[in-house]
Structures
1.
Amino acid sequence: MAKKNYQREDVLDNVIRLFWQQGYAASSIQQITKATGLKPGSIYHEFENKEKLFQEALGRYAAFSIDSIHQKMANATSVNMAIKQILTDLVEQSKACDYCGCFLIKTQLELASQGNTLYQFASAQLASIEKIYADYLSRVYNIEQARAYAAQLMTVIFGIRTYGYQADSANTITQTINALLPWLNEH
Amino acid sequence: MAKKNYQREDVLDNVIRLFWQQGYAASSIQQITKATGLKPGSIYHEFENKEKLFQEALGRYAAFSIDSIHQKMANATSVNMAIKQILTDLVEQSKACDYCGCFLIKTQLELASQGNTLYQFASAQLASIEKIYADYLSRVYNIEQARAYAAQLMTVIFGIRTYGYQADSANTITQTINALLPWLNEH
DNA sequence: GCAAATTTTGAACAGTCATTCCAATAATGA
DNA sequence: TCATTATTGGAATGACTGTTCAAAATTTGC
């Protein structure tokens, strides 16, 4: 039998970038073949169809995001400091000229109307991220307060993820975060 | 000469709904002909092409949004009360089963990567809305504070516009708004 | 009531879409 | 070595894309 001449993960990483930038509908299989070097036959052999490929790419992105949260929590001196770091990193990202927001949020917005499986998947991933924040925050605050702060945090993240598309928004955003989430400076 | 058998505004209203729900790429001319009752020829006769049609629809949507802000400001007892009303209306909207967020935000996210004219248009409209809030707030606060509050407000609006996609989020959002923007209760 | 002007119609265009198919290729197990 | 099995290559599929065009239809000004 012929040997695979690609790594599933490498393909997915290229596909993530494409779908992330352009969205689901605007990314064609032809573009995917160019970005990955795979022919249509190989793509459909390895990943059943476009939708399954997208879902797997999105799942990989979500896993990266969640890993990144845990990593920053582990490296910071406190939960609140870790969150502050996460937010400043987000602001930093938004300065890039090829900034394209959050893949999960974009998917949610693009595919919500069709009652799509992919929308539900993206939505569930975002909910699980909120839960992760709530769990960490519950080390510092009581469970009710932790959940409330996690909801605030997600709202602000959603906010800055789209405010980031505005030109020269980085400076404003930093001040905005401090004003909206004063409790981040508590511990 | 044949008489027009449609009203430009009616066509646009139908088109707004379609583009708003599905986005630019996922809405085909064929769907537009169905939604409006116009044949392709008429559409291209009245609106040069798909992009121009989209832009006009988006412009009309933006004008509605801006009108709505001025209207609520006029009807409220104070600027801060008007903003509170605007936010609770937003939360109310998010409860609808056919909720599809904000057309401007969705456009911005969908079309940002291509350096698209439509993205720039959406982004500019959102910036002008922020300016409108800043102007109203400057009646109550000094200019610097007004601008800062407007940025906070926009961030929170962006946030709840996408948090609204999460299931059963309405109750949480109301509490979140109160926590994030305590100054709304000042006047 | 005729000619000019404008709009509608809907078929036709070339291109692209996601997907399929199968011959060609290459590695395995016997 | 040879059949079996897994994978690739790339042309072909039919459906759909945005757009164009010329003929038909209908109102206006004269």
Note: Residues 1-3, 28-30, 40-41, 44, 49-50 of chain A lie near DNA strand C (CB under 10 Å from a C1').
2.
Amino acid sequence: MSLRHATLGLLVEMDGASGYDLLKMFEITMGNVWQATQSQLYGELNKLTTDGFIEVASEGPRGRKEYRVTEAGHGELRRWLLEVPPKVVRRDEILLRLFFLGQVEPDEAAGFVREQVVALDKRLADLGELENTINWDDANLSFYGRLAMEYGKRFMTMRREWYEWVLGEMAERDAVKE
Amino acid sequence: MSLRHATLGLLVEMDGASGYDLLKMFEITMGNVWQATQSQLYGELNKLTTDGFIEVASEGPRGRKEYRVTEAGHGELRRWLLEVPPKVVRRDEILLRLFFLGQVEPDEAAGFVREQVVALDKRLADLGELENTINWDDANLSFYGRLAMEYGKRFMTMRREWYEWVLGEMAERDAVKE
DNA sequence: CAGCTCATGTAATACGTTACATGATTAC
DNA sequence: GTAATCATGTAACGTATTACATGAGCTG
């Protein structure tokens, strides 16, 4: 049920927005935090409306609907933030592959890890670029968004170091085998 | 489609097993990597059989079915490992909450972060315990499993340090406000 | 023989992805 | 006037969670 709360939270921070606006916000600021597709978002907005957590504040051109969080919605968000224990979902495709890399040749395994390093460096660069692009005008989004961004950096750096370490371990093992 | 490959990979490493055995293996060794529920696993085993990637090698007491990976299954696993680009899903409920912590009082927000630290310490302790429990007899599972475990440790440690840093940032901000 | 563990399955529901579909408005 | 952008929606399918259901075999 977290898409629901991500939507509510963003709507509060943005002080009202359309589905289209929200979608962009998900792409830009929430890339490292929570993904959402267009279909999913529009569906959720309708459900949130039915449940009374948001309402259509005004309608604009091209069928645009500007949503706003209701009192009930603020309550729900607060309840979720403080009372619902976070559910940690652990599913990492890269780690999963690593687990089974013993089933291919050592050089193929090392190649896989090196590809991940390249991909990671690209993402780190993208993150740096994003950091410069973002308009940190909202006080809350700015403070907490910056914390999340720092997390992203630390996470990728940790991952990079671990990859290097893995390559070292692999090299060592293969050297011993000779 | 990764449950499929997690199942194939584990079946290869275990050199054949029942759904029940696999389920335990998922719980014990794959906790930090890939979660699976009982329903999901049994369903996937039947689909894998239909698709010819695994087969029932023998049947035991209580309707037990011992599965084994077929040639086609080995090929599929190899293909997935080396040719299918890993899909990174970024959804982190804790980070998501952090993003919106500006919407509750500062002390409530700090309380939330502190709770996460406690939960993390518990998981780190569990991981250490798990490390001692595991029977690292299979050469591949031992080598790659150890790499994955090291990842788990580094990940949690990074996270812990970041939480500390977050608490520091929060304290600083609140001090400035006075 | 009672209770535990082993062992598999299904049904309902929720959540997520991909693709398709449509049309209004704006900018050039 | 045509291309790009804004804007929303639905349908089909795949994946995941929860709960229910059932029974065989082992242990004391």
Note: Chain B has two domains: 2-83, 93-177.
